[in-house]
Design brief:
With 111 residues, this protein is α+β, with helices and mostly antiparallel strands. It folds into 2 domains: 63 residues, no CATH class; 42 residues, no CATH class. The chain has 6 helices and 3 strands; from the N terminus they run H-H-E-H-E-E-H-H-H. A 3-stranded antiparallel sheet has the order 1-3-2. Strand 2 and strand 3 form a beta hairpin. Helix 2 crosses helix 5 and helix 5 packs across helix 6. The longest helix is centred in the C-terminal third of the chain and has 19 residues. 13% of the residues are buried.
Length: 111
């Protein structure tokens, strides 16, 4: 609800925002698909959201890199990586809002 209007439509839910931030922070698994040509790769990438609405597809020539956010839980990541990922996504989202991670944390506690 507090995202700038020009990007808010990209994140219809909190899960979309969190998972995209996890991917941006490097907490993802990646699958490479060789589509044969760049044109075919663009078509494959366009189909990715229908298969996984949270996945991010990146085209590099004839290759489609499909990135999916890792499960963010202490159980799945271990405590150290969980807290590192939490700090990383807070920093990414704070940057999107042009506030400090501390300010973002305070806003979250107030709501």
């Amino acid at each position: 609800m507090n995202l700038p209007e020009d990007i808010a439509y990209l994140y219809p839910t909190e899960d979309h925002l969190r998972k995209r931030a996890l991917i941006e922070a490097g907490y993802y698994t990646e699958t490479a698909v060789d589509a044969g040509t760049r044109a075919a790769a663009l078509r494959v990438a366009a189909a990715v959201p229908a298969l996984d609405e949270f996945a991010f597809a990146k085209v590099e020539g004839p290759i489609v890199l499909i990135r999916r956010a890792k499960s963010q839980s202490v159980r799945a990541m271990g405590a150290k990586q969980f807290y590192e990922s939490k700090a990383a996504i807070l920093a990414i989202i704070a940057d999107m809002l042009s506030v400090s991670p501390e300010e973002l944390r305070k806003r979250g506690e107030a709501s």
